[in-house]
Amino acid sequence: DGGITQSPKYLFRKEGQNVTLSCEQNLNHDAMYWYRQDPGQGLRLIYYSQIVNDFQKGDIAEGYSVSREKKESFPLTVTSAQKNPTAFYLCASSTRTGLNQPQHFGDGTRLSIL
Amino acid sequence: AQSVTQLDSHVSVSEGTPVLLRCNYSSSYSPSLFWYVQHPNKGLQLLLKYTSAATLVKGINGFEAEFKKSETSFHLTKPSAHMSDAAEYFCVVRISGGSYIPTFGRGTSLIVHP
């Protein structure tokens, strides 16, 4: 079945450490997105990519970095510059230009500080 | 510009009674509108979408929503709540032009009492 796979499901970060969250899709979608979810704040866009080797900052990109070397993969790195990384991170994908096409979501990664 | 407002952060109902989750949007263009459901520690699942065809849209699990342009609303309803409906619900708007980046509401938590 086609879908989005996020790993790991749970991740712990030590002080000063960078960690990378994986997101892989086999839906042949051009666009991919990373969201951060905090209680009561809905989803906030971190980065998005509409095509391989190109990506754009979202609303809260500071302290995060991404790459898009393959269509199927869009990893997110949470750097040590992100002082409050504890949150639930969701990856999504969609067709690039289909206005009426929904996003498909992975099951998320929960990141906590040790 | 586009925005979406979910009017209630929490809605509490008894099992077997109707559900109403309210969503208002603002958009300079004809929008596409979506409702997603999120169960704890899971990703978002599409419930239904409006894409300028019929104004009354039927979705999965007995949910439906009506697009009312004059009221700029897209409220989600279900005739009879089930315990398994307890979850977080998100209203999303997407417009043509620009980058097609969806805008999310802050979510409504549906609580179902036995």
List its traits.
heterodimer, A: 7-stranded mixed sheet, 4-stranded antiparallel sheet, 11 strands, B: about 110 residues, 12 strands, about 0% helix
Can you walk me through this structure?
The complex is a heterodimer of chains A (114) and B (114). Chain A has 114 residues and is mainly β. Chain A has no helices and 11 strands. Chain B has 114 residues and is mostly beta strands. Helices cover 0% and strands 56% of the residues of chain B. Chain B has no helices and 12 strands. Chain B has strands spanning 2-6, 10-14, 19-21, 23-27, 31-38, 44-50, 56-58, 64-68, 73-78, 87-95, 103-104, 108-113. In chain B, strands 2, 5, 6, 10, 11 and 12 form a 6-stranded mixed beta sheet that branches. In chain B, a hairpin with a 4-residue loop joins strand 8 and strand 9. Chain B is globular. The termini of chain B are far apart. The mean pLDDT of chain B is 92. The chains are: A mainly beta (114), B mainly beta (114). Chain A binds chain B through residues 4, 6, 31, 40-43, 45, 48, 50, 56, 58, 88, 90, 92, 96-100, 102-108, 110, and chain B through 9, 32, 34, 36, 41-46, 49, 51-52, 90, 94-96, 99-102, 104-107.
Compact description:
The complex is a heterodimer of chains A (114) and B (114). Chain A is an all-beta fold.
Give the overall silhouette of chain A: globular
Find the structural class of chain B using helix and strand composition.
mainly beta
- Determine the mean pLDDT of chain B: 92
- Uncertain residue segments of chain B: none
Assign the structural class of chain A, choosing from mainly alpha, mainly beta, alpha/beta, alpha+beta, or little secondary structure: mainly beta
Topology of chain A as a string of helices (H) and strands (E): EEEEEEEEEEE
Count of strand segments of chain A: 11
